[in-house]
Amino acid sequence: MKKLITLFLLLFFVSHAGWAEEVTFDVKTSTTNESETVGKGSSSTFTQNGIDIIVLNTNSSNNPGRFTEEFRIYTGCVFKIVAPTDAVLKKIVLTVSKGIDLTVTPGTYSNNTWIADVSQPINVATFTADAQFRFSKAVITYEYSSTATVTPTFTPVAGTYNDAQNVAIECATAGASIFYTTDNSIPSSASTPYTAPIVVDKTTTIKAIATKEGLDNSGVADATYTLQALAPTATPSSSTFETQFDVSLSCATPGSQIYYTINGDEPTTTNSTIYTKAIPITQTTVIKCFATKNEWNNSETAIFNYTKTDPTKDLTTDFVFSELGIPSEKEVGTVVDAFNSIKLETLKAGHSTSSPKYYSSDKTMRLYKGNQINISTVSPSFLITGVVINYIAGESRNLTFNGTPVNVVNNQSIWNNATTGILEIVNPATGGTARILSITVKYRKIVNVTSNLATILDGGVDNVYYEI
Questions:
Q1: Tens of pLDDT, residues 105-118
Q2: Which pLDDT does position 199 carry in this prediction?
Q3: Are 245 and 217 in contact (CB under 8 A)?
């Protein structure tokens, strides 16, 4: 009877104790040979075989970090060795090339070996270099203290995707078996065994457990993969036009179907037209459309604008510098409006050092003295008929337009003339810095011009005849 009790207790202890693993972090076998150092006040994490080594530069002018064959930790800097989640560090043996003294928290360190304090189970050991310290390898022993198999993880993680996914399931418990379901039921050891990545080609929830003989089953892991159709695209995607043309819609999601409206309504599967052929556009139109696919989420709604123009009337486009996506204190350079009609180019020109730059602090482009702005039409079939420059209050300048000075009125420079070439706007070398919020450009299509271009006054063109 005593033998039976002893055997039972032994089996109970073996089946419920944690299990230990030993892994090696070796700089010399790293997949990269590039050095990576850590600046003052910063930290970096280096990972190998499931172990993280975190290097912190607390206040050293010499930057610690990973070099080609070793870690270098300078005086006062810190490195941490982190075991996997749910594991407890037991021992760390370092291969040291320089240095002796390390201050550790917690545990003890002697002869290049760190031993855990059994009264303080941790998965992070912290080392502070009392003098320059170098090591090339760390052999880490850790133990999973739980009596259960580690819960599985999924790659890629749960989320919304626009194409089918191959989902891999892993378990950190060596030798564990994984079982899963895709019908939202709770998995057990009778469920489908995991042997290869799972193809997810429709919105699916995967639930999985891991098992290992002698350990309790893991908790249930679940991940939902939502597949969503890509938003449709249009050709052309936007346009100003004078005569009828066709718009083609397409979707990059195979097997999808497109629904659209042209009356301004938000499209649904009940109030919309199923796209089967190109859409004729005869007047100003807004196309709203989305894509569907069986057992996928509908795409986002895509909106495409088509504007019918009267060639005898001016069009306008606005360059609002805070909306152009230019990083602060960077040169503006060359930008084109959303209709691909007007090009704006900034030049250093007469200024010896600085080009026009955008500043987010006041949302302006700064036009320094001597700087130049060139405005032109993208197509030679258009001409510029006017320009309005809007300044921040108190920061305007009298600029020249094609050599002619234009005075500022109410924080605006207004130029009403016509040109088919490049309009050159210059901040004279004698002026100060102009801070420009936006530039509005008026333009129109040239149609059978029968006489010379002349001054535009109040939207009308003197001495220019348009024959429609």
A1: 778 888 888 888 76
A2: 97
A3: no
**What's the token pair of residue 234?**
């249009």
Which H helix or E strand runs over 342? strand 342-347
Pull the structure tokens for residue 45: 């994490």
Return the structure tokens found at 359.
Answer: 């500043």
Query: What is the mean predicted confidence (pLDDT) over 231-238?
Result: 94
Instruction: Give the tokens for residue 426.
Output: 């210059």
Give the predicted TM-score (pTM) of the model. 0.45
Q: Which of 219, 218, 281 is nearest to 249 (CA)?
A: 281
Strands in 153-155's sheet, in edge-to-edge order, are 153-155, 165-170, 198-200
- The Cα 426–Cα 212 span in angstroms is 78
Q: Residue 401 in contact with residue 414, Cβ under 8 Å?
A: no
Pairing of strands 133-144, 19-26: antiparallel
Distance CA 73, CA 111 (A): 18
Phi and psi torsions of 256, nearest 5° = -85, 165
64 phi/psi in degrees, rounded to 5: -75, 175
Compute φ and ψ for 334, nearest 5 degrees.
-115, 130
Distance CA 29, CA 139 (A): 13
Q: Are 77 and 64 in contact (CB under 8 A)?
A: yes
- Rounded Cα distance between 427 and 354, Å, is 13
Contacts of 299 (CB under 8 A, 6+ apart): 228, 229, 230, 231, 232, 251, 253, 256, 290, 291, 292
Residue 463, sorted as left (phi over 0), alpha (psi -120 to 50) or beta, turns out to be left
Nearest residue to 371 (alpha-carbon basis) of 397, 394, 395: 397
CA 463 – CA 47 distance, rounded (Å): 75
Is-contact 106 117, C-beta < 8 A?
A: yes
pLDDT in tens, 365-382: 999 999 999 999 998 888
Residue with tokens 């930290």: 43
Rounded-to-integer distance, Cα 34 and Cα 113, Å: 27
Q: Which two tokens stand for residue 153?
A: 């993880």
- Which residues on adjacent β-strands are paired with residue 177? 211
* CA distances to 41, 68, 311, 382, 416 from 443, in Å: 54, 61, 10, 7, 11
Mean pLDDT over residues 296-304, rounded? 96
Q: Would you list the DSSP string of 90-102?
A: EEEEEEEEE---E
How far apart CA 337 and CA 423 sit, in angstroms, is 16
